[in-house]
Design brief:
332 residues, alpha/beta, Rossmann fold, seven-stranded parallel sheet, 13 helices, NAD(P)_dehydrat-like, NAD(P)-bd_dom_sf, oxidoreductase
Amino acid sequence: MARTILVTGITGFIAKRIAYDLLAQGEKVRGTLRKASRGEEVKAALRDLGPEALERLSFVEADLTADEGWDAAMTGVDAVIHTASPFPLSKPKNEAEVIQPAVEGTKRVLSAAQAAGVTRVIQTSSMEAVMHGVTSDPITEADWSNPRAPTCSAYTRSKIFAEEAAWEFIEDHHEMQLTVINPGLVCGTPMDRHTGSSVAVIERLMAGKDPMAPEFDIPVVDVADVAACHVAALDRSESIGRRYICAASFMSFLEMAKVLKAEFPDRKIPTRKAPNWIVSILALFDEQIALIKPMLGMTMRLSNEAATRDLGVEFVPAAEAVRRTGHFIAQK
């Protein structure tokens, strides 16, 4: 018998692929939307599954910043995949504008699930909550970002504190069964043109907006693997109470640029390394660049062994994930 899985923030880049995979294996999917009108966007993205699958897709209007709608969202649900997270459209005046909604939203979803008797929750966190200020080699799930690390932005801190809030909730409600997935920069092929900030990173390289690329490492993962980790966790009891690094490997911006240039030689994609001294000067005037300055020249490694062992996911190589995003952008 088909289960009903609630997917929060179903319009998201990751969430749409999760919904696709769940429907493809015969589940019922209920998605939360901040605006009900965006349901048609989701249906259009999933239309290749056919009308029978789309009949198993429904929506409920609910916002992470308000209580309304969450009781209805949880009614009759077998499990929750919580992907939704507030993302600032512009730089906030203070960090609380980013951190508080993320933390309170996580608590709101978990509280609503617990009140409805829904005990199984898969939460999307981020490598942002794993890798900052960490010196482990390789980085593993035992690592937690230091919120005071010089590379931490307000967004990074929001991911750290939201995941911490989830684990604290579980400590107080032992009947709840939580698994956390920590993706890196999500590349691969999106379900539609409504993509997130990860794709924008590759888009910037493809557009050749910068004459050079800084050499700093970032973890990369294919969206198909991110969805696979979430879906597999639903049926893997060994994943309960665990967090999982969800990335193929670290890859530098310069390496990404070279992969894309080899695939699209006619595009003005930067393949020269931006000297560290130039990046350091730019960091004086650009807060985003200032965040990457401490990472320049650092070589980082990660272990995804736990996700492969417990969730059965063999990760697409980072370079291939980047290439897939490049081809998606080239077809726009």
